[in-house]
Every structure is written in structure tokens, then in C-alpha cells.
């Protein structure tokens, strides 16, 4: 018996059926079935009305019957990232929350697991596929030579990554799998162009060591904006940049080095909020503007200007692409590149007279 015909009993002992929900929501039986199995086909207002009726009546479709009919467990696997510095990890926390909500609205559930390395994560994939019938996976923290994508592709397992595929040298790699990402270069370019509009010319970049893919893109956005506006030589641009490990402590040290150099900057664009917070401590009360990247809650609390990623949109797009791979939607584009937005706060004042 499928979820189209039977559910759980209500508090009075009467069985709540799909017909009961349809009557309460004033829609057809097929519409309720679509809400449960193919919500993308239902208009938002109708979707809300049916969900309200489901909640009021306490309707619960029989999961075993649904799995038998669709050959799907409706479970999505996702690795829970390890705790880092408590700052930049907030982006992936938001993504996880948004993806879980999006999946829940679509009748899916997320299954979280931990792993200490790529190889460990692949082992978890194999284990979950063998024991839990996970339908698909969402990957985060993509990087050069990522073995997870090639393993899932060889196994024929549907997946989408939040982050583009990168080669071992930090360049974009054409692997053919679906991804959603944020235009990192656009973000730092917008930050640099804003600082230029505020009268700054010596704008430094504080980023990660070369080869990280994401970090290289963020550096490139700064380089393009500054070189276009100033026509400075490559050597001058190099003198205005620094590379370091992503942490507040290392950010402070690297920023102090930039401030002590020959080409002393009046503003610093950073590859992350962690580096930017470190830079803030280095500039202290000096009139040096600082802009971070990721717009974390800590940045907002400190009044730090930062580039915000559209994380909720990224989660929604990842789920939509995943549904396409699972055959729940029609053919859709395989990749989505989203535009970030600069959030201006008190740490990016105009250049001093």
C-alpha cells in the first residue's frame, strides 16, 4: 500500500488518509501526492496550504511503501565539517541548516556523518551506500585533486558539490559533475572597487598560500580591480600582498608585515573574516580600512565590512540540481555560479585626506 492511500491514525483513532488531507486543503488527491513526491510541480501557495493540512491532521505517509514504489530512500548524505576557529566555519553551518530545511520541504532528509580526511569520507560513502541506501551526497570544501568526486562518479552515485572542481595547481577543472559555487573573484573585486571609490589607492590583499583555488580566485579579483584602476606594475602588486595560514593570529602577523613594508597600504582586502579580524588587531586605531570575506556573525558583531555569500541560495540550488540527478525534475543546467554581495560597515572608511 503506497503513501497515496494510507497514513497514521489521528488522536481519535480514525485513519488519516491522503483523501483526508485533500479535503482539508480543498485540492485534489493527485495534488497532495505531488506535494509529497514531486513538490517542484506544485505552486508555492498550494504547497503551503497542503503542508498546513498535513500538519493539522498529523498525516504521515508510510515510508516503507514509498520506498518500495519509488526505489528511493529519500536520504541525502553530507559530511559534518570539523570545528575550526569558530569564525569561517559559520558559512558551512549556515549551508547545512539551509540544505536540511530545503530537503525537508522536498520530502527528503539529510544524514550527517564525520570524517577526518578525504579517504575517510570515501569510506563513509561506501559504508552508507551499503547499509543505509542513501540516494545521493552533497560535497563541501572541494579542493585540488579531490578524490571524492572521481570515486562517486565511478560508482555512479548522484552528487552535487558546493564548490567548484579544482586541479592540483588550483585551476578550475572540467570534471563534468554538477556544482554550485560563489564567484569569489567578483566578491574581492567589488570590495576593492568600493575602497577605490572611497579614495584608497594602496589597497593590499591578505590571502592564503597559492594553489588553494578559492584563495587564488579571491586574490585575482583584487588584482584585476587594482591593476585596472592604478596601472601599477606586477612587482608593486606583489609588494601589496601577503600569504598566510587562515587564522586570526596569522592574519595579525601578516597584516603587521604589510603595514611595515615600503608600500604601506591604506586599506586591506582579506580572503576571509579570520584574516580580517587579525588585520583589525594589527591596524589598531590607525586609519586603515579592512574588508573580510564570508560575512560571518563575528564580522557583523565587530562592525567588519565583509563579502557575503548567498549561502541559502546555494543550498537551494544544490538541492534542485540533486533532484535533477535523481530524476525528480526535468533536465536543468549542471552548474550555478552565484554573485556575492559586499556588506559595508565601519571598518572601511574613506581614505584619510
What attributes characterize this protein structure?
12 strands, disordered N terminus, six-stranded parallel sheet, 15% strand, Rossmann fold, 353 residues, 3 domains, alpha/beta, six-stranded mixed sheet
Walk me through the structure.
With 353 residues, the chain is an alpha/beta fold. The chain folds into three domains: 41 residues, no CATH class; 136 residues, Response regulator (Rossmann fold); 126 residues, Rossmann fold. It is 45% helix and 15% strand. Helix 5 packs across helix 14. The N and C termini lie far apart (77 Å). The N terminus is likely disordered.
- Rounded to the nearest angstrom, the radius of gyration is 24 Å
Query: Count of DSSP E strands?
Result: 12
Give me the number of helical elements.
14
The main sheet comes to: 6 strands, parallel
Could you say which structural class the secondary elements and strand pairing correspond to? Answer: alpha/beta
Chain-averaged pLDDT:
86
Please give the structural blueprint.
Elements (H helix, E strand, L loop, with lengths): L17 H8 L3 H9 L6 H14 L5 H8 L4 E5 L9 H17 L3 E5 L4 H14 L4 E5 L6 H9 L3 E4 L15 E5 L1 H14 L5 E5 L6 H17 L3 H6 L1 E3 L4 H12 L7 E4 L2 H11 L5 E5 L3 H6 L2 E4 L2 H15 L9 E4 L2 E3 L10
Helix pairs in contact: 1-2, 1-3, 5-14, 6-7, 8-9, 11-12
Short structural description:
This protein is of the alpha/beta class. Helices cover 45% and strands 15% of the residues. The protein folds into 3 domains: 1-35 and 46-51, no CATH class; 75-182 and 311-338, Rossmann fold (3-Layer(aba) Sandwich); 184-309, Rossmann fold (3-Layer(aba) Sandwich), CATH 3.40.50.2300.
